[in-house]
């Protein structure tokens, strides 16, 4: 094998991962008055990019579906084991994000092909100040985000669109409408309700589990009244 400088090897892997992620559809997450909303362009009704992980924790992924789905399943098992071993209140998004970070960092540095994924792990608190959103990149880098997160090939443009629009205290319809508008703007086309996947971590929901998936009819109703 010809010698490749380590810095060139890391750059090549990074470029490869970026290209794979850019081919996928974007995901945004925004804080609203009742919790944290996730919105993605996703024409599939069976392959979810947004999912529940634990009672107050949700997961979103962009990039190669098989890879972030494997990570989601591993995260569910990690959370279940921790909750069973200690207590349900001990399962935190921070710990799950750290576990994902270590896994992705190892894959990026030690395997020939990096994972072509970006992940978001979010947790709602009893009050908005207790919300947590962790953005994990393909190389294991973790960022603690505030108010909103954009992921995917057009994350920078999406982030700028949300930065100019986001306001504290958004209700659910405003959050859904603004998120879909941001996605449509960066894609330069109108994204229909049937192409939208959405879910919310709703702190007002009764019971232990706080994740609720919005179906196409709910999204369409919100957008038509917006």
Walk me through this protein's architecture.
By secondary structure, the protein is an alpha+beta fold. The chain has one domain: Glutamine Phosphoribosylpyrophosphate, subunit 1, domain 1 (4-Layer Sandwich). It is built from six helices and ten strands, in the order αββββααββββααββα. The strands form two sheets. A five-stranded antiparallel sheet has the order 8-1-2-9-10. β3 and β4 form a beta hairpin. α4 crosses α5. The radius of gyration is 17 Å and the shape is globular. The mean pLDDT is 92.
In short:
By secondary structure, the chain is of the alpha+beta class. The protein has helices at about 5-20, 65-85, 95-110, 155-165, 170-185, 215-225; strands at about 25-30, 35-40, 50-55, 55-65, 115-125, 130-135, 140-145, 150, 195-200, 210-215.
């Amino acid at each position: 094998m010809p010698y490749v400088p380590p810095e060139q090897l890391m750059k090549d892997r990074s470029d490869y991962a970026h290209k794979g992620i850019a081919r996928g559809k974007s995901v945004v997450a925004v804080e609203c008055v009742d919790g944290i909303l996730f919105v993605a362009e996703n024409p599939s009704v069976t392959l979810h990019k947004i999912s529940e992980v634990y009672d107050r924790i949700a997961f979103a992924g962009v990039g190669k579906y098989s890879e972030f789905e494997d990570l989601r399943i591993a995260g569910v098992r990690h959370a279940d084991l921790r909750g069973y071993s200690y207590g349900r209140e001990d399962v935190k998004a921070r710990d799950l994000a750290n576990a994902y970070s270590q896994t992705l960092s190892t894959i990026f540095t030690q395997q020939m092909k990096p994972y072509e994924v970006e992940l978001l792990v979010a947790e709602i608190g009893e009050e908005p100040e207790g919300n947590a959103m962790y953005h994990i990149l393909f190389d294991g880098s973790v960022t603690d985000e505030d108010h909103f997160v954009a992921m995917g090939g057009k994350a920078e443009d999406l982030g700028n669109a949300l930065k100019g629009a986001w306001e504290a205290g958004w209700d659910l319809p405003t959050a859904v409408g603004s998120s879909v508008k941001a996605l449509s703007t960066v894609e330069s086309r109108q994204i229909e309700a049937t192409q939208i996947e959405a879910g919310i971590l709703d702190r007002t929901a009764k019971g232990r589990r706080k994740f609720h998936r919005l179906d196409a009819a709910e999204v369409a109703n919100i957008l038509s009244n917006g």
